[in-house]
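ingest -> fold -> write
write: protein_1
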Amino acid sequence: MTAPPQQNVRAALLLALAGFAILSVGDAVVKTMAGQWPGTAVAMLRYCAGALGLALLVALVEGRKAFRIPLPWLQLARGAGVALATICFFLGVMAIPLADATAIQFTSPIITAMLAPVFLKERTGVAVWLAMALAFAGVLVVLRPNLLALGPAALYPLGAAAGMACLVICNRKAAGAASPLAMQFYAALMAAPIITAATLLLAATGLPGFQVGLPPASVVVKCLLVACSATGGHMLIYMAAVRASAAVVAPMTYVQLLVAGALSWAIFDTVPDLSTFAGAALIIGGGLLLWRAHKPKVVPEPE
């Protein structure tokens, strides 16, 4: 028997929940590299390694046919979204606290929900908007004491939010074009040269903080670790977007705030304050509302 649409949505929410949580773990690893190598260079190495690893994996699992890229312009748009999100967020994580950078990026679901009716012709339900409103209110509560102090560095996570919104929209439009593994390879393949070009161009400007030298061995190892974890996280998010609308999947990104807060406390000794706990409560409330709105209805079997 084919799974009802509601069950597909719940499966999508679980996949997205796991995917975004894994991404937060990788973000914490990136934070530990602050001051050791430029954020742009870290993003470049992470995606070049990811593209190479995925190419080998795709060749072993799916063979040569997987290297015929479907919808190339759409794959390029996915890669551009990934490139923008990665560069901006890596720069943001290295410039401001992890939890703050993660929270600012949570404007991504709002951007996604605004773009979905235009590019995907999707109707956004009242429950989804209410869930996003609760979660976004939670983000504002978390940031309230620190927003003005962050200054221009707060723009980096906003750029990351725009990139993630582009990725979610394009994932939905590309649904079914290839296997999840191949789709991750296409995104990395397109993103790697874009990030590399941006890294070299910024290094050529001579601006401090963008000069690329030989990285320490520990940085190389951490970049490879981030490449593996991020690839797994993005694959889960793509699988979620295939099963449900972009506006439904996007709010699950708010779990990153909870994971980032816990990691900041455990690794960087940044203890969340009362506003962080209050904002987290609103975020969890939004997630529970979204879950309940898509709870499968029991349909009695015919006698």
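write: protein_2
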Amino acid sequence: MTVRRIAKIFKSRPTIEGAGVHLKRAFGYSQVPQFDPFLMLDDFHTANPAEYLAGFPWHPHRGIETITYVLEGLVEHGDSMGNKGVIGPGDVQWMTAGSGIIHQEMPRESPTGMMWGFQFWANLPASKKMMPPRYREVKAADIPMATLDSGVIIKVVCGEVAGVRGPVRDIVIDPEMLDVSVPAGTAFTHRVKHGHTAIAYLLDGEGYFDDRRDAFAFEMVGKGWMDVTRRCICGPETVVLYESDGTEVTVTAVDRPVRFLFISGKPLDEPVAWYGPIVMNTQEELRVAFDEYAKGTFVKQTKQGD
């Protein structure tokens, strides 16, 4: 076994999306294709309802999958196939836009006022860009946990750990999505498929995400041009991008526990043409998509399973 090392660390940056949602962008358009097959990760975390209630009103997607994971608060959703519902703490919405879907995601004000969740965008290969849309809502109670002898606790959304398999399966990019909690003074080692892109996004605490203790051994992005005191240990709101070589990752919590999302997937190695909520392979495909949206012919499937 060989341990993967950190290639780069990115600090999430504040931005405003949708109709006025304040969030932190861990990575996005400017990092393509470093995170291939993943396109974007947004972290929305605020106790001020004015910063999230405007939400994401009706908008189109084509050519991608969107994955929403809620830790606190409630998000009401609906789409052009007739799916609708509310996801709350611990729930996941995994939506394959494929040939085209129009949907909305509208946060509700929670009793505490707190909203905390994440949305990933995962790309689809050219051969699947126009596949039929599909939608999965996975409740927290249906997401299994793996508890290791070391005390590490892992919520398995997609993939498999210690014989525990997540409920989201048969996804094109063969992804993993894990919510990992590592106790203080504990190391966690996890196998990664050969060639797959591997990412960790820190939620709480701090830890070492490879075997080095040299903060200058890898590039840090978004930390400031005069960051001469940067630390090797990683803390919240940072995303770790691993090198492509190696068969496993090791995370070590020292004085404090650490909690992070771990995501991996098979790179597509294809051209990306991206504008707004639509991601295709060529500019011509983008033009067609937006022309169809303007003409009302964008949605090809009006019910799931058609």
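write: annotation protein_2
The chain has a mean pLDDT of 94.
The first strand starts at residue 6 and ends at 11.
pipeline exit 0
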